[in-house]
Amino acid sequence: MTLWPPGRQISEHVHQLTIPFSIPVAPNRSLIRSVLIHLIVDRRICLIDTGVSGSETPIFHYIRTLRRKPSEIAMIVLTHSHPDHAGATSTIRKATGCRVAAHRAELPWLEDPSRQNQERPIPGFNDLFSEPVHPDIEITGGGPLEIDDDLRIDLFHTPGHSRGSISAWFERDRVLLTGDAVPVPGAPPIYDDAVSTAQSLLMLRKIPRIRFMLAAWDPPKKDGECYKAMDDAMFYVQRVHEAVLRAGGPTDPDPRYLCRQVMEILGLPPGDINPLLMRTFSSHWNTRDRKDLFSSR
Q1: pLDDT score at 148
Q2: What does the pLDDT look like over 141-192, one tens digit per residue?
Q3: What is the pLDDT of residues 116-134, one digit of tens each?
Q4: What element of type H or E holds 178?
Q5: pTM for this one?
Q6: For 59-86, what is each residue's pLDDT tens digit?
Q7: Angle, nearest 10°, between helix axes 275-285 and 194-205?
Q8: How far, in Å, CA of 212 to CA of 222, rounded?
Q9: Which residues make Cβ contacts (< 8 Å) with residue 242, sequence separation at least 6?
Q10: Up-side HSE of residue 25: CA atoms within 13 Å toward CB?
Q11: Where are the domains of the chain?
């Protein structure tokens, strides 16, 4: 008997589906992870992200449990190009004929996965994202996106985690879908640009009357929890920044040494040190002239 990952309805039209995957970290040893993707189900269906390669199977299964058909998927909106968010996109488009929307800044890594693997390598990349994606709609900033005649979402360019990260606001249900734009306190902070991450958080915090905030790695937040989660994320990003400034010293530090020192200050497990964290802390170090990332100066 096949055990499918759990899915659940969050609001009248929005559903959340957990997609598990594994990352090989040593011979005969893998790290089990999962990512949350989302479906907006109306007369047609919009997917917000697709999970890793092979995720089309549980996605299609879940759609059928709703007494709908995978062919009713009209569009895929990618919050960014990383394999846990875009790996199954090409397969789903081939099976359904849907359109794909992504920010223009993500195109180099979507259209050439091997380049992404070279520039941001992770173990097992080719098993997670094997087929190039050529979006039908190139997003250049923010604004409304028409999925169907009666289905619309508003997009926000929220760079930081990646250059072309976007968040989606589904006003009808007052649902904000943030991808990886909102760091989670206590979890390893993964983003490429500290300043852009701060600016994106400030922008999302201004959206009024959010009822649900749905991220890719964090449980759903409701009503006041949404704004508290963003406040906590801003506090955490500033705390990371101060830890980097404290650990870096007067001269350019070795990235691995900097990472080790910052992890110790933050109380994060030293075994979590990896190149992605080194990118995060280096981005803070490169903006060390700014003491407060959230000030207007």
Answers
A1: 86
A2: 889 999 988 899 999 999 999 999 999 999 999 999 999 999 999 999 999 9
A3: 999 999 889 999 997 999 9
A4: strand 175-179
A5: 0.95
A6: 999 999 999 999 999 999 999 999 999 9
A7: 80
A8: 5
A9: none
A10: 12
A11: 7-181
**Three-point CA angle 102, 106, 108, nearest 5°:** 125
Question: Is the C-alpha dihedral spanning 88, 214, 217, 8 positive or negative?
Answer: negative
Distance CA 145, CA 251 (A): 46
Dist CA 164 CA 133 (whole Å): 15
Interatomic CA distance for residues 13 and 116, integer angstroms: 33
Q: Report which secondary-structure segment, H or E, holds 263.
A: helix 255-266
Would you state the structure tokens that stand for residue 89, as one six-digit string?
């996109």
By C-alpha distance, which of 228, 168, 221 is closest to 40? 168
Closest CA to 234 of 177, 170, 184: 184
Decide which of 1.20.1440.230, 3.30.470.10, 3.20.20.10, 3.60.15.10 is the CATH code for 7-181.
3.60.15.10
How far apart are alpha carbons 110 and 132 in whole angstroms? 6
Rounded Cα distance between 150 and 167, Å, is 20
**Token match 């299609």: residue?**
60
